Amino acid sequence: MNNKFYGKLIFELSQTGRQAYSLPKNECSEYALACLPSHLMRQQAPLLPEVDELSVVRHYINMSNNNFGVDTGFYPLGSCTMKYNPRINEEVATHREFVGLHPLQCSETAQGALAVYYCLQTCLADISGLSEFTLNPYAGAHGELTGLMIMRGYHMERGDLKRTKVIIPDSAHGTNPASSAVCGLEVVVVKSRPDGTVDIDDLMPLLDETIAGMMMTNPNTLGIFEHNIGKIAKAVHDCGGLMYYDGANLNPMLGKVRPGDIGFDIMHINLHKTFSTPHGGGGPGSGPVGVRAGLEHLLPNPRVVKVSEDGFETFKLQCSDQSIGSISAHLGNFGVMLRALAYILTMGREQLKWVGPLATLNANYIKESLKDVFELPISGVCKHEFVFDGLKDKTSGVTTLDVAKRLLDYGFHAPTIYFPLLFHEALMIEPTENESKQTLDEFIHIMRQIAQEAKDDPEMVKTAPHNTPVRRLDDTLAALHPVVTWRELQAENY
Ligand SMILES: *Cc1c(COP(=O)(O)O)cnc(C)c1O
Question: What one-character DSSP code corresponds to residue 17?
Answer without folding.
Answer: T
